[in-house]
Structures are given as structure tokens and as C-alpha cells.
């Protein structure tokens, strides 16, 4: 039998059709990935602009390319908004992702063979903090903080002992499983004692920090904060770095770490979309962060009521957008996540501190930030948790539950906490896309 080879045109059309299918699928799904969100249509409009095709190197009004007359203004507005929203002295918005932001900070603060303390991957640390990620690429040696599994946070006394013993060049904090604020105030004395620089990866909680509903790491003495801009901060996939420049030479080091350190052109359309998002955060950020955390707590409670082992019940499950559930009794995180995906409930398997196999972890991670963005309130979390329980606990066929998921999702067709002709919420193309 002869293989049928598609033409280039057919392949291009296939990609368009697959994109449409993806958009339709998410329009009919409950989105619970803790590292995702939807942008406002105004942000999407500027993202899908001619800026996407253009190039800039360097800083505003000091470019290596021509054609940046308006780009310079956009980037300046974006930086100024970042400084205002985060009440800080310095912002660089050129990193093209959270991991690239981390690479830039590593470039600025460390040299190969320097020592750095971090949160272990199994305890919720991000892969870029580990030797198998960006930190390893830089050649930095990492040492993991002791972790309090019951409270899902760094063990303060153990961390103090580690920092005194290791005397790291940099103490890094922040997680991709980030339930509670890091005990920075309790550790400040030991930072000063060993003279290390402090760095906080706020990728997951950046919007909560902006909304003044989580800790403010800069006000708690951290030197540098990095993050991605598309999680609880509901903007484009991009990155940023902020600081109060508490150390001499820090601004120059961070600027050089970004460019020429780890970026060339910095995706100008994303900078524009980030500027819009920061403006919307200035207006609506506190209300949005507040609702996100309320939804996460309510979802944790509703799942607990339905028999799930939601971690940290004694602490109210979470103080962020994320909850973590041990589903080992139902076959583990991988099995549960795949079954829920068939029901159009989208979340991910996740390592728990006692796991050793990242392919077959015992947990799942759930984020409420996109639910809040779509207008869901605490009372809707009972519906979401019941749909999850029907698949996982009651063993209903996912295909049957999917029909009810699709019906439930029809109630939520607006993006909230954003601008549009003076309205806070409106019909949106977040899952339909702009394909004609």
C-alpha cells in the first residue's frame, strides 16, 4: 500500500483545523492548570499585531535597530506600570518567559561553581531551579532546603542551618507548587549573617503579589524578584524582573543579564500585551487576586467534603491560587489526570514531597486563577468538585461527565477584571481565536 503524502498546503490547513479543535475543546472544558490563564481581548489584540514581526535590541531610545519609535514608548509604559503595580524602583520587561527571566538573574548574580540554596523539585520547586534545568546550565551548585511536608513549606530552622553551613552566594525561593507565603521574615537574620543575595521566583503568585493578597517579597527584604506573566498575572507568555536595587551595581547586572545575556529581540508584541495586562491589574488586580484565593480555598473545601485528601486542611488548604490533592488511593496522579482530561477537566499530575517517580506521582495540582478570570465564585466550586468526584471517586465514565462539563461551562463566556469600552466583563474570543 502506498503512503499518501499530504501537500504543504494540506499540512498548513491541518494545523489550522487542529488549532480550531483545540480552541473549541478549551471553550468546553474546565481549565484547572495552575500555570495558565486567559488574556483580555485588548491584550490579545495588541499581541496579534505587526509588533509580532518586528525586532528591537537594547533599551528604549538606545536601540541597535531602527523602526522602534512606538516600541520605545510601549516598553517605557510597560516598565513604568510594572514599577507602579509592584511598588518597586526597577523593572525589566524584556525576558521572553519566566525561565528566561531566571536565566537572566542567574547570569546577573552567579558564576559557574557558585553555591545556591533552593526548594527541591519534589517539594514544589521549579525545574529551572535545579541542576537539570537553567541552574545546571549556568553551572551553579544547588542545595535544597529542608521541607515541612505537613505544612507544605520550607522548614525555617532547617533552612537557617543549611544557609549557615553552605554560605550560598544566592538564596533562591519560590515554587511551582506554591500554597503558602515563604517564611522570609523569619530568615532575614541569617541572610545578613552570611551575606548572600536573596532571589524570589514569583512566577506562580505574581498576580497575587500585585493584588496585595500574598506576601510582598521586596518589602520583606528580597533583592530580586523574577516571574512569568501568564499565570495569576493573566497576561501573555512572557517574563519580567523587578527589584528595589538594594545592592550596588544590581541594576547594571540585571540589565546585562537580560541583554545581551539571554535574549536578543524580546518579543515586542508580548511587551505590548503585558503593558495592557499591567494596566488592567492596576485597576482590577486586588479584586481579581481576592476572588482567585477565595475560589481556591472553596474548591479545596468542596473536594475535601467529597472524600479527597486535599493537603493542608489544617491551614485552610491554601493561601494562593493552588491546591494539591493526594490521589494515590485512586491510582495516582497520572491515572487521575488522564481520566479527567477525557471529561474535559484539565489539570496535571504532580510530585508530592514523599514521591520519587515524576512519571507516576501520587498527586494532582489544581489552580483556580482561570476559573476566577471567567467569573466563577465560591459557590461554583461545589459544582466543579462534584464533576471531578464523579469521575475519580464515583467512577462514572468520563465521556458521560463530559456532557455535563460542557453544559456547565456555557455559563462562563466572559473575561472579567479587564477593560473593554468601559465594561469590566464582556463576551470574549478567548477560546475561539482569531482564525477566519
Secondary-structure blueprint of this entry?
Blueprint: H1 8-27, E1 30-31, H2 41-47, E2 58-59, E3 62-63, H3 69-85, E4 90-92, H4 98-109, E5 115-118, H5 134-138, E6 141-144, E7 147-148, E8 153-154, H6 156-166, E9 170-173, H7 184-194, E10 197-201, H8 206-210, E11 224-228, E12 239-243, H9 250-262, H10 268-305, E13 309-310, E14 322-326, H11 333-342, E15 345-346, E16 348-350, E17 363-367, H12 369-373, H13 380-392, H14 398-409, E18 414-415, E19 426-427
Parallel strand pairs: 1-15, 5-6, 5-9, 9-10, 10-11
Antiparallel strand pairs: 2-3, 4-12, 7-8, 11-12, 13-14, 14-17, 16-17, 18-19
Helix pairs in contact: 2-10, 3-10, 4-9, 6-7, 10-13, 13-14
List the defining traits of the structure above:
Aspartate Aminotransferase, domain 1; single chain; 2 domains; 19 strands; 436 residues; seven-stranded mixed β-sheet; alpha/beta; Aspartate Aminotransferase, domain 2
Give an overview of the whole structure.
The chain is built from 14 helices and 19 strands. It is α/β, with parallel strands linked by helices and about 425 residues long. It has 2 domains: about 45-275, 3-Layer(aba) Sandwich (Aspartate Aminotransferase, domain 2), CATH 3.40.640; about 285-425, Alpha-Beta Complex (Aspartate Aminotransferase, domain 1). It has a 7-stranded mixed beta sheet, with helices on both faces. A 4-stranded antiparallel beta sheet has the order 13-14-17-16. Strands 1-15 form a two-stranded parallel sheet. Helix 2 runs antiparallel to helix 10 (about 270-305), helix 4 (about 100-110) crosses helix 9 and helix 6 (about 155-165) packs parallel to helix 7 (about 185-195). The longest helix is centred in the middle third of the chain and has 38 residues, at about 270-305. The chain is globular. The relative contact order is 0.16.
Amino acid at each position: 500500500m502506498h503512503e499518501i503524502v499530504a501537500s504543504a498546503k494540506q499540512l498548513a490547513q491541518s494545523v489550522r483545523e487542529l488549532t480550531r479543535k483545540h480552541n473549541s475543546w478549551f471553550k468546553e472544558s474546565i481549565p484547572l492548570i495552575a500555570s495558565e490563564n486567559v488574556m483580555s481581548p485588548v491584550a490579545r489584540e495588541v499581541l496579534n499585531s505587526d509588533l509580532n514581526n518586528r525586532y528591537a535590541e537594547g533599551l528604549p531610545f538606545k536601540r541597535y535597530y531602527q523602526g522602534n519609535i512606538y516600541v520605545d514608548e510601549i516598553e517605557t509604559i510597560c516598565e513604568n506600570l510594572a514599577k507602579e503595580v509592584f511598588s518597586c524602583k526597577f523593572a525589566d520587561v524584556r525576558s521572553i518567559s519566566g525561565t528566561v527571566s531566571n536565566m537572566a538573574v542567574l547570569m546577573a548574580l552567579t558564576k559557574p561553581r557558585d553555591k545556591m540554596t533552593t526548594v527541591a523539585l519534589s517539594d514544589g520547586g521549579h525545574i529551572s531551579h535545579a541542576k537539570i534545568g537553567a541552574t545546571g546550565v549556568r553551572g551553579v551548585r544547588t542545595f535544597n532546603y529542608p521541607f515541612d511536608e505537613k505544612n507544605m513549606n520550607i522548614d525555617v530552622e532547617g533552612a537557617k542551618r543549611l544557609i549557615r553551613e553552605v554560605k550560598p552566594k544566592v538564596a533562591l525561593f519560590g515554587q511551582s507548587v506554591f500554597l503558602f507565603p515563604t517564611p522570609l521574615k523569619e530568615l532575614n537574620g541569617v541572610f545578613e549573617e552570611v551575606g548572600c543575595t536573596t532571589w524570589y521566583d514569583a512566577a506562580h503568585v505574581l498576580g497575587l503579589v500585585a493584588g496585595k493578597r500574598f506576601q510582598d517579597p521586596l518589602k520583606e527584604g528580597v533583592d530580586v524578584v523574577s516571574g512569568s506573566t501568564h499565570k495569576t498575572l493573566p497576561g501573555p507568555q512572557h517574563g519580567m524582573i523587578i527589584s528595589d536595587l538594594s545592592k550596588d551595581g544590581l541594576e547594571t547586572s540585571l540589565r546585562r543579564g537580560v541583554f545581551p545575556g539571554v535574549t536578543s529581540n524580546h518579543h515586542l508584541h508580548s511587551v505590548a500585551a503585558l503593558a495592557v495586562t499591567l494596566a488592567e491589574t492596576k485597576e482590577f488586580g486586588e479584586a481579581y487576586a481576592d476572588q482567585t484565593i477565595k475560589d481556591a480555598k472553596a474548591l479545596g473545601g468542596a473536594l475535601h467534603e467529597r472524600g479527597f485528601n486535599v493537603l493542608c486542611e489544617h491551614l485552610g488548604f491554601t493561601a494562593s491560587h493552588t491546591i494539591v490533592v493526594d490521589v494515590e488511593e485512586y491510582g495516582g496522579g497520572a491515572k487521575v489526570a488522564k481520566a479527567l482530561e477525557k471529561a474535559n477537566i484539565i489539570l496535571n499530575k504532580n510530585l508530592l514531597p514523599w514521591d520519587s517517580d515524576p512519571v507516576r506521582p501520587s498527586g494532582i495540582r489544581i489552580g483556580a486563577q482561570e476559573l476566577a478570570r471567567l467569573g466563577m465564585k465560591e459557590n461554583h466550586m461545589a459544582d466543579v468538585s462534584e464533576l471531578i468526584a464523579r469521575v475519580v471517586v464515583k467512577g462514572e465514565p468520563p465521556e458521560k461527565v463530559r456532557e455535563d462539563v460542557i453544559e456547565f461551562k456555557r455559563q462562563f463566556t466572559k473575561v472579567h477584571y479587564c477593560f473593554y469600552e468601559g465594561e469590566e466583563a464582556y463576551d470574549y474570543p478567548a477560546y475561539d481565536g482569531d482564525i477566519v
